[in-house]
Write a structure and sequence with these properties.
The chain is of the alpha/beta class and 311 residues long. Helix content is 39%, strand content 18%.
Length: 311
């Protein structure tokens, strides 16, 4: 059994104590808690949960684990709150997030990704590729490291009152993205600023989100009641270190469908060739003033979709 852990205690003494507890738990779990993956990981985390140690990668070999599935085990780490995020690769060579993100320019494509059919998969791949190309143009010759594109989905429910998605559903959506050749980060939380915080642990290079307008509207519409500073605090955390959002255009029909259950006061838009881009959106004050600031400050970068290149 191979574990990758992040130590969260501030001193060496406390870190040594946490690793010692984890080692004892590992020996005990190997002998007495192998009945299920859940019982094994719960045993590992006993007395060293979130505030002490984060486990963001697990691998195993040997006959004792013959019936265990690696992807399920990784998803469980996030689902159980043992990790902030885990990484999946289309090649099957999964690794800790730190190994992938270290010092790299990153493009994250966040979303729910509920549709896993081929048509939607191609659209998701097109979105992520457009974000990577945009960052490549932005960096030009200033970076020796090529940007990495990663799909980002969350183990948290879309709404606080909803139940959390189950592991089979998370893996269904993850597998759909992997089938398109994309890398995937499965996050514990759904807020974009939590994704920023994790990625910025491992890189000082530019971090960019590429997102359709519907996700952008949802992010701006969220009241962020869990933060003292509400929406302003969320935005300050999101754009803390060299972060921007590439806003990908949507067709009018898709945009209307995606936000039909949202209540956004004074939201209007214009269109070009049936497409709505970020600079076509108009939001009523006072939120509209904040939206205009984000555009003018280049925190939000309107993109042109491939459909706009000509008939």
């Amino acid at each position: 059994m191979v574990l990758h852990v992040n130590l969260r205690d501030p001193s060496n003494v406390l870190q040594q104590e946490a690793v010692g507890i984890l080692g004892v738990n590992l020996v005990y779990a190997a002998f007495h808690q192998l009945t299920t993956k859940e019982s094994f990981l719960a045993g590992l985390a006993q007395n060293v949960v979130r505030e002490h140690i984060e486990i963001d990668f697990v691998d195993f070999r040997g006959p004792a684990f013959a019936t265990w599935d690696r992807s399920t085990l990784l998803a469980y780490l996030v689902h159980a709150g043992l990790a902030e995020a885990v990484f999946f690769s289309p090649t099957g060579t999964n690794m800790p997030p730190s190994h992938v993100l270290y010092k790299k320019p990153i493009v994250l494509a966040p979303g729910y990704f509920g549709h896993v059919d081929r048509t939607h998969g191609m659209l998701h791949a097109q979105l992520l590729a457009a974000g990577v190309q945009e960052l490549q143009r932005e960096l030009s010759a200033s970076s020796s490291s090529a940007p990495i594109g990663i799909f980002s989905l969350s183990a948290a429910p879309l709404k606080p009152e909803d139940p959390a998605p189950e592991i089979p559903d998370l893996l269904r959506r993850t597998d759909g993205l992997l089938a398109q050749g994309g890398n995937v980060l499965l996050f514990r939380e759904r807020q974009l600023y939590t994704m920023t915080a994790l990625v910025n642990r491992y890189t000082n290079a530019p971090v960019r989100f590429v997102a359709g307008l519907s996700l952008l509207i949802r992010a701006l519409n969220d009241p962020y009641f869990n933060l003292e500073g509400r929406r302003l605090e969320a935005l300050s955390r999101l754009f803390a270190q060299n972060v921007r959002i590439y806003a990908y255009p949507m067709t009018v029909v898709d945009l209307q469908e995606a936000i039909k259950n949202l209540s956004v006061a004074g939201l209007e838009w214009s269109e070009t060739n049936s497409l709505v881009s970020a600079d076509h959106l108009r939001v009523a004050p006072p939120l509209g003033h904040l939206y205009a600031y984000l555009l003018a400050s280049n925190f939000l970068v309107p993109m042109t979709g491939p459909q706009q290149k000509g008939p």
